[in-house]
Design brief:
Elements: H1 2-11, H2 14-45, H3 51-76, H4 81-98, H5 100-115, E1 123-126, E2 129-136, E3 140-145, E4 150-154, H6 155-160, E5 163-165, E6 171-180, H7 186-199, E7 210-216, E8 221-230, H8 234-252
Helix pairs in contact: 2-3, 7-8
């Protein structure tokens, strides 16, 4: 045992022991400062950032400060920081090639945090995926679809793809493309549609409903009927107003055309005259 203590005392000289104590004190102080900074960030940005973005921001501040103090502690122990930074640079290059997708997603996540195109709880559409956002992380965005499926979309995809935030604004417009027969009175059809919007309790009075002629279709005249609704009632109104339009058209005798094809005879074709010419062939015997 005496030999062991003598060996440790030979290794840990007074200067080395003091350097080790200073390094430990710096790291402990860094941990405390990082924790306090994280708590301060949470209190300062609690009302400005949503929970997921606040968590990412808090972790970034915490680990950055703690890493700086760890580097200072290593410097107290006599480590050559230039060599360490060089090794870290080589390691970063190697990791960068090995994890290009993860780094791209990480950087894209920072852009999403800064831009804030949507928040947790919003309904968004990304490509053919539609769902509610329930998590925004550094590498991906998590969605829950309306049929209760889990969808993970990488942040890089979110940056490169058109993202439609369906619940960004308090009001939305339900647009219905409706066809009526050419024989119908468009003014009367328009009045019926406006009455449907007037009688539906979910339709907003302001902005007013719209009813515009889109053009002449193959089987009828195409109309655009748009009614405004509070965003949370969008699906309910879209379902109810279509049934009400059908019932109103049936009651008023307004025809909703279906695709049809009209055939008319053209000019009769001129008869073809065909002359049959019989060729006389010599037989080999006659030759």
């Amino acid at each position: 045992m005496d030999n062991l203590w003598n060996g440790i005392a030979g290794i840990l000289t007074y200067d080395k022991a003091m350097a080790l104590i200073r390094a430990l004190l710096v790291i402990i102080a860094g941990y405390a400062v990082a924790k306090l900074a994280g708590v301060g960030v949470k209190r300062l940005f609690r009302e400005r950032l949503e929970t997921s973005r606040l968590r990412i921001f808090h972790r970034s501040i915490y680990y950055t400060i703690f890493l700086l103090f760890i580097i200072s502690g290593l410097k107290e122990l006599g480590f050559n920081l230039s060599v360490m930074l060089g090794a870290a640079g080589i390691l970063s290059v190697a990791l960068g090639f090995a994890a290009q997708t993860s780094v791209s997603n990480l950087i894209s996540g920072l852009f999403l945090i800064g831009e804030r195109p949507f928040s947790v709880g919003d309904n968004i559409q990304v490509g053919d995926k539609i769902g509610e956002v329930f998590a925004i992380d550094m590498l991906s965005v998590k969605l829950r679809t309306f049929d209760n499926l889990f969808v993970r979309i990488p942040n890089e995809t979110m940056i490169k793809t058109d993202v439609i935030t369906l619940t960004k604004f308090p009001e939305r417009r339900v647009d219905l493309k409706i066809g009526v027969a050419y024989e119908e009175d468009l003014a009367a059809v328009r009045q019926v549609l406006l009455e449907v919007a007037e009688n539906n309790p979910l339709c907003l009075k302001e902005p007013e409903p719209v009813c515009n002629v889109l053009g002449f279709g193959d089987s009828g005249i195409d109309l655009l009927f748009g009614v405004w609704v509070e965003t949370e009632n969008f699906l309910a109104l879209k379902n109810s107003v279509q049934m009400e339009v059908k019932l109103a058209f049936d009651e008023k005798g307004i025809e909703i055309p279906f695709p049809h094809l009209t055939l008319s005879p053209g000019r009769p074709a001129e008869p073809l005259s065909v002359d049959i010419v019989r060729a006389e062939l010599e037989s080999p015997a006659a030759a």
